[in-house]
Structure formats: structure tokens, C-alpha cells
Amino acid sequence: REAMIDAAGPDADEKQIMQFGEEFHQKWYRDRERLGEERHRRMERLWFEGRRPRGEKKAVEKLEALLLEFPETNRAGCAAYELGQHYLKLGALKIEERRQQAERYFRLVDERHRDSLCEFNSPAAPMAKLALAAWVYRHTDPQQARRLLEEIVRQHSDQTDRLGQSLGEVARKFLEQIK
Q: Low-confidence residues of the chain, pLDDT below 70?
């Protein structure tokens, strides 16, 4: 699925966007209508240039620019999620600083962009919680991981990830493994 996203690129047309899910398409289209085609294309360019490779400074700068320029868009929630992922992999920072920066962006998703959907109708907020839970479990705070996973089960069981898996089930299985 990542290859499909990369192949579409920042200049994707509506037909290409439709393959990423109808709900995602609706949010993408509303942002395009509100921003105008030129500004929307700029936002999409920042998104595509910032998505990968994770953990690289230039990619982080692109996504941070997207958040500053387009904070009230659906894509801003996806950018904040990706920034969290980038910071987890930013090897230039010490492990605790990486966690703090990643958590800052993951929390931003939940606080300001709770309704953001990324490609394939993947909900940004619970995906951010899941990513943070996995990382803090391995590196810093298993209790925080448990709290995040329980929150996903309570609040997001009706949502699915980009592969169509129930996020509640994913979180429950993770909780069973870490008991």
C-alpha cells in the first residue's frame, strides 16, 4: 500500500485519491476546495516530501512546515502522526528526547486532529497512540503503554487500521502479550 501512495504522488488526481478510501477522499477534496488547487498542491508536496525516509532531518522539516502552514487541514493530523514516527527514528537524539518529541506530536494528533484520516481511511489518532504504546513498551515505560492500549480498546474499537484490522483487537492482542 505504501507503493500505491508513493506512486500517486503530490499531483494525484481525484481518481487516484479515491483508491485510498472514500472517507479520506472526502476530507482531501474538502481541503482542496477550501485551500484552492495551488495551495492544496503545495500542502500535498510537503506531505509527500516529508513522509519518507523516516528519521531524516529534511523530511521532518517538510512536515513541520506543513503543520505551520496548514494547521486546520485533515493532512495536518497525518503530518503530526508521521512526525511522531520520524522522531522515534531520529538517531541524533537521545532516547528520552526522541520519546518526548514523538509523544508531543502523537498527543497533538489526539488533541487537535482527532478526526484526521490518512490514506486507506486510517485514523491518525488511534494509530498515533498505538505507535507510541509500542515504542514506550520497548524502550521506556510499559505502564504507559498499557494505559494507551486500554484507551484504544475503550475509545477506538470501532476503527480499523490501513489494512482493515480492528484497532481494538490489535490493542487487545498487544495487551495480552505484555501481561
A: 1-9, 16, 18-19
